[in-house]
Design brief:
Blueprint: E1 2-4, E2 10-12, H1 49-64
Antiparallel strand pairs: 1-2
């Protein structure tokens, strides 16, 4: 997906989702140190601007079914 950020910069991001039947331990890697199963309400700290845009897109997609 293509996004224009507040500073005028264009960024591209991908959004992937799945259903999880059995939660497994997260394995750290060079991109992430942990995973959060977020309810959309609990305070989890800073969320990068492009990630906020991806979350908005996901909300729109889910609401359309």
């Amino acid at each position: 997906m293509k996004f224009r950020l507040k500073n005028g910069k264009t960024e591209y991001g991908g959004l992937f989702s799945t259903s999880i039947v059995n939660e497994r331990p997260f394995l750290k890697n060079e991109e992430a140190t942990d995973i959060v199963f977020w309810d959309g309400n609990k305070e989890i700290g800073y969320i990068d601007e492009i990630d906020q845009e991806l979350l908005r897109f996901y909300d729109l997609k889910e609401s359309r079914g």
